[in-house]
Design a protein that fits this description.
This protein is an alpha/beta fold and 692 residues long. Helix 16 (540-549) links the parallel strand 20 and strand 21 (563-567).
Length: 692
């Protein structure tokens, strides 16, 4: 007897596409995903298969969509796994196409229509996927890839891919290859968005229910190819995928299913082509990797549980009789990764001044869901501002802030007309949004995105601000707009020489902002930031902490390089300062914490915070330089950057120091934090939330 309950609101209407969403504790995201699909410009029906969620999402789905004739909900009493749940819905569809969509994947109204138009004259294509982006706009690995081979499988399960970058035809995935300009045939696409032709589905059959979680999408792609159906990747259509949101928790169990899926895939599609010994090496690698990762999780999980019990990230206590804002009362919803709710400490001497300046003021923030943007919005809410945030998707802001705390504008800064009215009624604009991929763009598409999003998007936002009569405009730039001066202390007076596509785009954006200010009388300010640290950090510092924690960051030789950094709350304080200072109009400021840090210091400080002993040995400098030269040669031959080359070595051991004397002298800015003070809390947060 099938353990499910089916809810149908009305007889099924005609639809070109049947969308299947498998939900397990998807929370607000699955609601947003369904809303987005139901807003499609083509006829759709939506089948949500719930695998015994306990977060209230099935009830919310019923309450919101029960009256929609094209919405159907299947509620399973047990978690049947991804493949089996998809098959439940696929057996019931009669549309020309089926779209398998993850509950944390958000489409645009015309996404499905664009995909159908591309497939219309390609009858040999049985399955198609689009460009799947992370919430920060970067390409998500795995949305276009090759099927694994025994060698590539062994390389990946043993984590040798960090030392042996893939070559064409060797299971390369995602951004490891340049993004094509036109639709191309690939061997596999991501299971987060799979558009399947019904004729192909009838020919190939349903998903293999022997998989519970992970690898079922690769299996299906392999089955389609064995039957002669092409798989198409469409780069011109994109969706946003909040990867892993609905599978958080039970880490070891997830690892078990993932590695079991790897073994099953190899046994089905590859084992027959290779000798017995090689097969056992592959199996050994799979289960050795599972064992190692499981053992690594055990102490981390224990430490995270211990840390969670006595520690509250919000240490503020309201004064007697004081009221607490809704934002201060908010707690993290199930399955989300909400940063600390603690508002930045802005200095008691300025609290009253800032509150008077921002109370009731309509403020617009782009890039609000990012590391800095989140802290800025928290500070503005604390000061009583009326905050509007701009985001590509409304889902993440809804998870970060309670209903009614902010106003959300859904917009894409690169699309004409998207920014036209966003600044209407706004007094102050804080513009933080930019293309968030690695500053050293690796291909033409990444360089194009830097120009389109960072430079073009900034020009569009500042133009909208001018047209709306905004009074203040603050742009968050980067010291990358200046380049690196080695041991020379750079200031705003030095001629900029950006060394990357990211830096060039930031410099172009700065100039667009200053030009708008000079031509239209808008009070504008640029802030150039070095590496930013603090609570909620997910950038280079977090990657360093993770590498040291996992033993992947070897002890470097003693080196006296120097790099500038700044705490996120000092950044927020500087943004509020320039927004309220008439003297800041038309100016560009560098903001640092006034200290200089070496890579050696960072390494030692992170080890101390993790409770690791100081190593008794160091890699000789000659070994590093020889490895970098070898990496340069291998990279030039293979066409792929190596983990260690001259560029990465310079980033590790080179200096990049900047002076924040101008903002100190002109505006009286004084940083309140140092990395030494902040690092223990950052490491504790990593252990609680990110040590996966």
């Amino acid at each position: 007897m099938q353990q499910e309950r089916t809810h149908r609101s009305a007889p099924q209407n005609a639809a070109r596409v049947s969308v299947v969403v498998v939900n397990y504790n998807g929370g607000e995201l699955v609601l947003d995903a369904v809303r987005a699909v139901l807003s499609s410009t083509v006829g759709v029906e939506v089948h949500v298969v719930d695998n015994a969620s306990n977060d209230g999402s099935p009830q919310q789905l019923r309450n919101l969509f029960a009256d929609r004739v094209n919405f159907h909900l299947i509620e399973n009493r047990d978690n049947l796994g991804f493949a089996r749940a998809n098959n439940q819905a696929l057996r019931r569809i009669s549309s020309d196409y089926a779209l398998l969509l993850n509950p944390d994947c958000l489409v645009q109204p015309d996404t499905i229509e664009q995909m159908l138009q591309i497939l219309a004259d390609r009858p040999g294509v049985g399955m198609a996927g689009c460009l799947v982006r992370n919430p920060d706009g970067t390409e998500q690995l795995g949305c276009r890839r090759d099927l694994p081979t025994p060698w590539s499988s062994l390389v990946r399960v043993l984590n040798l891919d960090k030392l042996l970058p893939p070559k064409p035809g060797s299971d390369a995935i995602g951004a490891e290859r340049p993004l094509p300009a036109e639709p191309v045939e690939v061997q596999a696409i991501s299971g987060s968005f799979m558009l399947v032709r019904r004729a192909a589905l009838q020919n190939v059959g349903l998903m293999d229910e022997g998989y519970f979680l992970h690898c079922e999408d690769l299996d299906w792609c392999a089955a389609f190819r064995e039957r002669g159906w092409k798989i198409l990747f469409v780069p011109s259509v994109d969706v946003v995928h909040y990867k892993g949101t609905c599978s958080n928790g039970h880490q070891v169990r997830v690892l078990w299913y993932k590695h079991k899926g790897m073994a099953r895939f190899y046994r089905k599609f590859l084992k027959r082509y290779y000798p017995f010994v090689l097969s056992w090496l592959v199996y050994l690698g799979i289960w050795a990797r599972f064992s190692a990762l499981s053992l690594a999780h055990a102490p981390r999980n224990l430490l995270r549980r211990r840390l969670r019990q006595p520690v509250s990230l919000d240490t503020r206590e309201p004064a007697p009789g004081a009221s607490v804002s809704p934002a201060d009362q908010a707690t993290s919803p199930a399955g989300s990764e909400r940063p600390s709710r603690q508002a930045p400490a802005l200095g008691g001497d300025r609290q009253a001044e800032l509150r008077a300046a921002f109370a009731g003021v309509p403020v617009l923030v782009t890039g609000a869901t990012g590391f800095i943007g989140f802290r800025l919005v928290e500070a503005l809410l604390h000061l009583g501002a009326q905050v509007t945030v701009v985001s590509r998707s409304a889902s993440k802001p809804k998870r970060l802030w309670p209903e009614g705390a902010i106003r959300i504008i859904q917009a894409d800064l690169t699309r004409i007309g998207s920014t036209q009215d966003m600044c209407r009624g706004i007094g102050v604009v804080f513009h933080l949004a930019s293309y968030a991929h690695a500053a050293d763009a690796r291909n033409d598409e990444q360089q194009r995105q830097h120009g389109a999003v960072t430079a073009g998007g900034t020009d569009a936002v500042v133009t909208a601000a001018v047209q709306a009569g905004v009074s203040r405009f603050v742009f968050v730039s980067s010291v990358k707009a200046m380049g690196e001066g080695g041991d020379k202390l750079l200031s705003e007076d030095d001629e900029p020489h950006p060394e990357s596509a990211y830096g060039e785009a930031k410099l172009a954006a700065e100039r667009a902002v200053l030009r708008a200010g000079a031509e239209h009388g808008l009070a504008v300010t640029n802030l150039r930031l070095p590496m930013v640290y603090g609570p909620g950090n997910k950038g280079n510092l977090l990657r360093l902490i993770a590498a040291v924690d996992r033993g992947l960051f070897p002890p470097l030789p003693p080196v006296e390089n120097r790099r500038s950094m700044v705490h996120v709350d000092d950044v927020v304080a500087s943004m509020l300062l320039v927004a309220t200072s008439p003297a800041a109009a038309g100016r560009t400021y560098i903001v640092t914490d006034g200290r200089e840090y070496s890579t050696g210091y960072l390494y030692a400080a992170v080890r101390r915070a993790l409770g690791k002993r100081e190593p008794r040995w160091h890699i000789p400098m000659s070994v590093l330089t020889s490895g970098a030269r070898l990496g340069d040669r291998l990279g030039s031959v293979s066409g792929y950057p190596m983990p260690l080359d001259s560029h990465t070595l310079d980033k590790l051991l080179g200096s990049a120091i900047y002076s924040s004397q101008r903002i100190r002298d002109e505006l009286g800015f004084v940083p309140r934090y140092s990395l030494e003070d902040a690092l223990p809390a950052i490491v504790a947060e990593y252990l609680m939330d990110f040590a996966a």
